[in-house]
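Below: protein 1.
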Amino acid sequence: MINEQYKKLLEGKSVIRQLSEFANARGKEIGYENVFDYSLGNPSVPVPEKFTEVMIELLKTKSSMELHGYSPSLGIASVKDKIAESLNKRFGMNYTGNHIFPTTGAAGAVAHAIRCVTKPGDEVLTFAPYFPEYNLYVNMTGAKLKLVPANTENFQINFEKLEEMLNENVMALLINTPNNPSGAVYNSKTLTQLSELLGRKQKEYGHDIFIISDEPYREIVFAGVEAPYVSNFYDNTLSCYSYSKSLSLPGERIGYVAANPKCTDAELISAICGQISRGTGHNCPPSIIQLAVSEVLDQTSDMSVYETNMNLLYHELTSLGFSCVKPGGTFYIFPKALEEDAVAFCKKALKYDLVLVPSDSFGVPGYFRMAYCIDTEKVERSLEALRRFVKENY
């Protein structure tokens, strides 16, 4: 018999994916350049030229076995050492290669981290608005994801609600900064307050509470915005990173878990992740991509287009009367819809070939997300469609 749990998931297909499929189908009718598709967060800028050069050099000079054979189950040692060195230099940490576990993107990193620090029945808290796939990452382990309501004033943490929801069954907090979908970046004040609160609760409950910090947008931060490194604030932190955004490599599926050297059992986390891989079939990200990324760790793609697009959209949206917290990073903006029903709002927008994602699945009703990782020229053309949509409907 087919597993009914997974069969049921087919009924709850991702809204984002459905809208992306609609945009592609509509593009076949009128030309995709005429569909203003803000549905999918797919990095749109080229990889750094240096990465391409490194890949070519590796293919020319390294053996087939080194490039295409299985990597060690805990990742390539030289790659892990370089990642640790880069993090130490940038953030003043004390990682060694033994604290790093390479994964298939940040999704793989989060999935491993959750299994490291929870067991079935434990609770994991996350903060609205949140990436809806967290439900699967957590709940499919047997742990339970609970959602802390949003602070819609600035999308920092709602500490009043967090304190109400903390209890002795909570083993981890899953945070995402810079945040998808809001674009908010947790500041030092927020992270200090969070660290102090969790420190008190660890003593009260007599067990560790880990922060699992989902950080794939860490490098996409706009001018004048502070983007603190979470592990500098709280010892029991597992940082989950991906090169999908910083190097525009989403298809290569490469990231890592970095265990704060001061966290409980820090020296065991990578080895435990290796055992988790045995049970999930994760087993070793591609060797060639690990090696290539390790040569460009301190580079990024030219991501200035994201800030340009954000400013264009923020100015236009606020001019049209939308309420919107200005993003501090990422390539998402999260305005309040012009009616209570965000699904109805986004459905009306489709008539103008504006593909917007309603906020219900992000845990904050009445908003919508725009993923502006598209060409600036297309953003500029979409503004007229946005104006017509608002004028004719609201």
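Below: protein 2.
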Amino acid sequence: MLMMLAAGCTPPEDRQALDRAVDRAESAPRIMSVEQEDRLLAEERDLPTATRIGQWARRFLDADGVEYLFGLKEGGYVAEGDLVRDDRQDCVSLMYRVTELARADNHRDAVVLALRTRFAGAPLDSVVDDRGRVDYDRPEHLDFSLDMIRSGNWGQDVTTGLTGAAPDSAGSSRYPAGSFTVIPGTALVGDELAEGDIIWLVLDPDHPAGGKLRRKYGLVIGHIGIVIVEDGKPWLVHAASSDLEGWYEGGTVVSVPLSVYLDRVERYSAVVVTRF
């Protein structure tokens, strides 16, 4: 789809829909101007995708004025139909935006990637309205993170090749036990993780809240973050809704050693790892 759009091979209505989406994205709040974004994307075009993911994760971490807002809440990216809204992030939108920028040649290309991955296979004119807003209720949009992992749109699932990998023994009301592989937090080897890895945090079935989310809603993944490597150790960059005492105040994009996060946040007992 990206090549077809670039080559002008799509129907006129889809090209017009893309133009509307790009226009809306250009006027959205950003951590930098469109011109700055394009300059950085051009300068870093030849870097490995994973390196670029780490670079953009660090930029969101360092940016001023970024607040946590769950996408479905009033003003959130889902509620507003936004592809780009850099000043309001939850864990999913941060992962979307960082990985889209890391694979784009320019700001327009990032919007094409957003449409191609968030709404894979959907005709653009059915996704984008006359104001450039997108419809997250479209059936092509994946609501469950395990389905996102399986799509391959956000990196290859490398979990099975890492130390400690084992079938999930609990499953959920949506996914049978043993149908996917996880790495228990206690078995994770930090040295095996790399800059730009996507960390999908698995709900602990024995935790009251985590178990309920599995049983009642079918969820397996409860949170998403991005790895940056500092002094040889993996740190988790993520949009945090709450504080982690001694490490950060929530309500924005933060970082913490992954081992600390897994040790302190009892809701999550394992991870799935995808890699570009």
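The chain is about 35% helix and 20% strand.
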